[in-house]
Amino acid sequence: MGGLIVKTFIKAVLLCCVITFVDQVSAKQSLNSALNVPLFNEHSAVMLVVEPQTGEIKFANKAAAAFYGYSIAQLQTMRIQQINIFTEQQVAQERQAALSKGQNYFVFKHRLASGETRTVSVYSAPFTIENKDFLFSVIHDISSQRNLEKALWHYQENLEQLVAIQTNEIEQKRTDQLLLALISISVLLILLATLTMLALRLRRAKKSAQKDSATLKAIFNSIDDLLVYTDVEHRVITANTAAVQKLTAGEPLEDKNIYSFTECSKGVVGVDSECQFHGAKEVFWGEARVTAVIDEKNSKIGEIHLIRDITLKLKARQQQRLASTVFSTTNEGILVSNRDNEIQAVNKAFTQITGYQEQDVLGKSPAILNSGHHKPSFFKVLYRRLNEAGHWEGEIWNRRKDGSIYPSWVNISVVFDEEKDIEVYVALFNDISLRKENEQEMWLQTNFDTLTGLANRYHYNSKLDQEMIRATADNKRLAICFIDLDRFKSVNDTLGHNSGDLLLLEAAKRLKACMRSSDVVARLGGDEFALLLPGINTLADIERLATKALLALSSSFKIGEQDVFVSGSMGITIFPDDGSDRKILLRNADSAMYKAKAQGRNCFEFFTSGLHEQATARSRLENALHKALSNNEFTVYFQPIISHDKKTVGCEALLRWHSAELGDVSPAQFIPVCEELGLIIPIGEWVLREACREAAKWCGCFGDQFFVTVNMSSVQFIRQDIEALVKSVLQETQLSAQCLTLEITETLLADNSSNILQQLQALRGTGVGLAIDDFGTGYSSLSYLKRFPLSKLKIDREFIKDLPDDLEDCAMVSAIISMASNLQLKVVAEGVETFAQLAFLNALNCDYIQGFLYSKPLPAALFDKYIREFIAEQNNK
């Protein structure tokens, strides 16, 4: 019975040992499954990657090479069947046995390169890469354990035999059997203790390996730089998290060529290279270093690529270079001082502006530039502002090394450190002497007339506003005087603009000499001057100064070798008697000045309520004119122009205006206002287009027997391209150029401008006729008829109305017609109202007759009827 108990106890102990051993092996397999591929090669455990279908060994680590006695390269050319000496039937039996026992490992016999056979336990786990199945196998050499197990089983068999013998002799040798049982138990306890110690060591090794694996894995993936392990063909085997995220945004990176992401040179090992990489989301610059992985036979088996993103580093480097370039090349002086306000650095522009070299100022205070123009309180406010806001900008007068003072515009900024304490001051400044001079020059140009040096209109208006405020506060009057030089235009036309400028300059000096120091003398433009007389309370004082000024202007002017006589017409208005608004006062003075001209010139007139009414009426006229074109208030009338043989009929297009507000308004009243306001440009275009549109119909019916004449303002020639306008209208209306004549005034020809001459020549080149209107009443000059490409000449009605009774008019008209005939010019006599006038003109062979004798100006429909009846009547004769 005792022997049975001992036998049962021994089996239980052995079973516990086996179970413990099984747990240890299983734990070992779990340990290997946690390892990462990058650690595969260097791991101490024997590891193989096998293709299950063919048994080909795809990968083997250094431990496998050391165990089997083959190199890694040799192993990776072999099949697992060349190592495992079990037949397929034995392998299947072993797998069935493991399955029945609930084991997750197999026990095989493997042959080493030396021919030695080892018993091994194999833990295999399937995995898939790119849809391809592989077995990851971890092999442990359990030969010694198997030998120990055999020894134990042998000992157990011997023990059982001994127990059987002892059982047969138990009666005789009970004492010996008990002693033997005790010895066996002791041996088994020792063996159990040994196995227990081995199990504890294996468990500690497992925990240590798991810890090391987790640590290495964490380190591998926590590296911010890109870490990629590739084979010798540069295909990625594994990569850390940073590389996967940066290069493929989380997509698998394995088996991709690392150089597909960059233009770096391949195979350069041990050298740091700056290359551009094409990441998943952006292109970045990286500093790449390649390290070769060498096996124990000194053969290269792969590469480790360490890539550091240096995009920000390069940008910082570029910004640093840029800042350095700006610092050294900028035209602004730069001064950098520390928190104690000691100069640390200056640039080249600083030296150019101040004259100080860098060695002259390093370590010194910026106060070395102090000019003494600013009080200490100025700099206290400056530094208080810097400490509060971190920036100050303004004008400072500084002193150069040579002692000269100059104005500078300074920008000072404070750079704070991480603790918000002042680290450095950075001051940028430049010399604004030239700018100050330009500002002064611009101020003079803005406020003073460049020819005479007098205040201009802008400055005069500003001073008027100031003086009105002062006069109101002091309860005093203020006189505003406008002066226009009489006959100045004739001086310009006869002696030229240079002489006119000299006259204006002398007139300005005379006016300035007549006035008090508190008075303002201004030139508003052209030959218009203005006086501002503050602090005057009596009209007698104003009249005295006005008389003195006009007397000075009426004295002769010496222009070159000639004595020139002009005079002035002055209009005067009083603040606050005549108004309290500047615009009203200026308008009042202007109205009074025109009244002085109407009174015979060389006099002054005070503003009256009648002038105000005239100004109001003009204002109403101006307002109505602004709306007349858009309201379709204008109409074109046509007055016949009949040739002396009555075979050719033309007409003059005349503008008429019926205002909804003012009724019928005379052209003599509104045309000058249109020219002053610039409205003559759109209105003139409209008249030309309407006249040509109507004339195209009559030219279509009567051909060369018909023409139309349209008046053109000198303002249009000055502000417009008349040639382009006429061509556009002729093309639009389909009117022949030969059927159109443009009437121009002598005022335009007197301008003596090359631009005017070019425009007139261009118009004649198109075939359009040119007629000079009102010849003999303005600034007529025979040179006009020679210089300008005219085709017609119109005799003003002033010379026609007293024909044939006025002998002087008869002589004048006869001379004009004779002269025009010799110059190949056609003559039109306008204002013909009697048969006596017609007979006289026909006797002189005047080419065309225009006047009420034939017809007054007619609307288009009535003129159409008139011309048809007239031509029909002539054809019937």
UniProtKB/TrEMBL annotation:
Entries under InterPro entries matching the protein: Biofilm_reg_signaling, EAL_dom, EAL_sf, GGDEF_dom, Nucleotide_cyclase, PAC, PAS, PAS-assoc_C
Segments forming domain PAS: 319-365
Gene3D superfamilies: 3.30.70.270, EAL domain, PAS domain
TM annotation in the entry: 178-200
Top-rank taxon: Bacteria
Endpoints of the signal sequence: 1-27
Keywords: Membrane, Signal, Transmembrane, Transmembrane helix
Boundaries of every EAL domain copy: 618-871
Domain annotation PAC: ranges: 392-444
SMART domains membership: EAL, GGDEF, PAC, PAS
Residues annotated as domain GGDEF: 476-609
PANTHER family, per database record: BIOFILM ARCHITECTURE MAINTENANCE PROTEIN MBAA, DIGUANYLATE CYCLASE DGCP
The protein's name in its UniProt record: EAL domain-containing protein
